[in-house]
Design a protein that fits this description.
There is one protein chain. The protein folds into two domains: 101 residues, Pectate Lyase C-like; 181 residues, Single-stranded right-handed beta-helix, Pectin lyase-like (Pectate Lyase C-like, 3 Solenoid). It is 8% helix and 55% strand. Strands 1, 2, 3, 4, 5, 6, 7, 8, 9, 10, 11, 12, 13 and 14 form a 14-stranded parallel beta sheet that branches. Keywords: Glycosidase, Hydrolase. Pfam families: Glyco_hydro_28 (PF00295). GO terms for molecular function: polygalacturonase activity.
Length: 305
């Protein structure tokens, strides 16, 4: 593992490889013989003006690249590899960080390719550092989980995110935005645009019942706010299920906008499922769920395009 703490970081190469030799860690984790947590391959902590580029990361024991409490981070031109059955080998996880750009990366791992986070339950709430001002573009890859995700640890809040020009294949989810009761925090002002999917189980999943808790001290009444999410210009083939949007009964997801989403499969694509959600859908196939066909959310959806 490489750790940088505080200051300016430049980690660039000529496609050299950082090998985490993760198989020994994965085996211990799978057997339940690991007495401590696994390390990330590259951890940036309390750093600013960081550049990570032109490198190959492979076989991380745990998450590959984890900027936490950072600002002004550029991650570009990376290849990140791990077997699909390697546990928790997320590609890039910006966490409680601001002004982050991730671009032109090819990622194939055993977990989410890119996952934006901001702290876990009461610890993330106490820290109160959101992830904000994040741009993600031109990402290609494959995962048994999600290509692009937010969460599920979002207790410090995630806002003002743009993810565009994404190409995911042979994956579990195209886009997965996830949180849970007890998280608190917020997920808001997220735009995902220009996505191409091939052989993906769920095109889109936005769910309020994902992820466990670190201990029993979390506040069961801390409900997250999920508001102002726009997903547009998505084309998918060999899709099994259109998607699920499932809010929390006492904290319904609001202003969800789906636009120009076309999902096709070799068999009929299973329909959308929705609950505790409001918003609008424009030019969506298969036909959107009734919760997104009312006129109440139409003005937000039209204005966000």
């Amino acid at each position: 593992m490489i750790v940088f703490v505080v200051g300016t970081v430049i980690c660039a190469g000529e496609n050299g490889t950082i090998d985490g030799q993760g198989s020994v860690w994965w085996d211990m984790w799978k057997k339940g013989t690991l007495p401590f947590t696994r390390p990330h391959l590259l951890e940036l902590m309390d750093s600013s003006n960081a550049i990570v580029s032109n490198l190959v990361f492979q076989d991380s024991p745990f998450w590959n690249i984890h900027p936490v409490y950072c600002s002004n981070v550029l991650i570009r031109n990376l290849t990140i590899l791990a077997p699909h059955d390697s546990p928790n080998t997320d590609g890039i996880d910006p966490d409680s960080s601001s002004n982050v750009c991730i671009e032109d990366c090819n990622i194939s791992t055993g977990d989410d390719l890119i996952a934006i986070k901001s702290g876990w339950d009461e610890y993330g709430i106490a820290c109160g550092r959101p992830s904000s001002g994040i741009t993600i573009r031109r990402i290609t890859g494959s995962s048994p989980f999600a290509g692009f995700s937010v969460g599920s640890e979002t207790s410090g809040g995630v806002e003002n995110v743009l993810a565009e020009h994404l190409n995911f294949y042979s994956s579990g989810f195209g886009v997965h935005i996830k949180t849970n009761s007890g998280r608190g925090g917020f997920i808001r002002n997220i735009t995902v645009s220009d996505v191409v999917l091939d052989n993906v189980r769920y095109g889109l999943r936005i769910a309020g019942d994902v992820g466990g808790h670190p201990d029993e001290r979390y506040n069961h009444s801390a409900l997250p706010i999920v508001d102002s999410l726009t997903i547009k210009n998505v084309q998918g083939q060999n899709i099994k299920e259109a998607g699920l949007i499932k809010g929390i009964p006492n904290s319904a997801f609001s202003r969800i906008c789906l636009s120009n989403i076309k999902l096709h499969g070799s068999a009929p694509v299973r329909p959308w499922k929705c609950a505790a959600v409001s918003g609008a859908a424009l030019d969506v196939q298969p036909s959107p769920c009734t919760e997104l066909t009312s006129t109440s959310g139409m003005s937000f959806c039209t204005n966000s395009l």
